[in-house]
Amino acid sequence: MSLGASADGKITLHRDRILLRPEHRRVWASLSQDDAGPPVEQRLDVQATLEGSGSLVDHDAGPLTGLPAPTADPAELHTHHLPPSVVDDPARRYWFAAVNGRGRVRWQQENPPGWAVLVLVCRSTPLDYLQWLRQRSICYLVAGAEQVDLPSALDALGDELGITRLASTAGGSLNAALLRAGLIDEVELTLFPALVGGADTPTILDGTPLGPEQLPTRLELLASEVMPRGTVRLRYRVSASASASASASASAGD
Ligand SMILES: NC(=O)c1ccc[n+]([C@@H]2O[C@H](COP(=O)([O-])OP(=O)(O)OC[C@H]3O[C@@H](n4cnc5c(N)ncnc54)[C@H](OP(=O)(O)O)[C@@H]3O)[C@@H](O)[C@H]2O)c1
């Protein structure tokens, strides 16, 4: 996962201010003082980024409304939709994958050059939304029943599209779910010289708290870099053995 955060770990200005909105993005971008370097897809040499719907719509937004009633067979709508016109497009270099199990995101027609959208949905995603994606030739993968099953979704990314290097650039809720599912192997944090505060403001890692038997995930520092204007970039490997041995000690009552 790769995130930009204030020194106090906040990843936006306020729970109600998603950085997609230009007025909030401007303020957020000013925190880095042009110090952040090349974009993540180049920096980490990934084939895809992964976002959550929380970065793309307000946190209280519901499923899209006013879509035409589904006419296609549900079984067909529940199969992956990967039109060759998108998958095999020689101009496409990167996938912008997004977890969107509730069908909340209204995709625009135009993607930035070189990018294609890949929506991760599940069997409870509204059928009218799936049909709407198909009518717009927007790719989607179906994984899970009530919500997107993250391990299955990542498997499908590899099996269907050959994606083996992916960076989650999502917010704290999705990153926490990925971490708890054991799906994060590296963490890149870009810390801006600023403080935001706010108990309810999204952070690097939100989601469910540690359970009574769970211990923090240990990290091994791989690299650190201090930029000229005070931004700090840290790169860690998630240390499976450290967290496993800590759990073993805890269960042995140490
Ligand atoms: N500074 C940065 O680098 C940065 C990066 C990203 C975001 N942000 C900011 O952070 C805020 C959004 O963060 P957030 O934490 O509210 O949103 P988020 O990370 O997008 O989390 C919500 C997403 O996680 C999915 N999700 C959560 N738990 C899950 C689970 N157990 N299994 C499967 N999917 C799960 C949800 O799925 P459904 O859609 O299916 O419900 C939804 O797509 C926004 O303000 C955004 O601007 C900042």
UniProtKB/TrEMBL annotation:
Coiled-coil residues: none
Record keyword Transmembrane present: no
UniProt keyword annotations, A-Z: NADP, Oxidoreductase
GO molecular function: 5-amino-6-(5-phosphoribosylamino)uracil reductase activity
Alphabetical list of Pfam families matching this protein: RibD_C
Record-level GO BP terms: riboflavin biosynthetic process
InterPro entries documented for this protein: DHFR-like_dom_sf, RibDG_C, Riboflavin_Biosynth_HTPR
Keyword NADP recorded: yes
Matching PANTHER family: 2,5-DIAMINO-6-RIBOSYLAMINO-4(3H)-PYRIMIDINONE 5'-PHOSPHATE REDUCTASE, DIHYDROFOLATE REDUCTASE FAMILY PROTEIN (AFU_ORTHOLOGUE AFUA_8G06820)
Identification of the protein by name: Deaminase
Organism name: Nakamurella aerolata
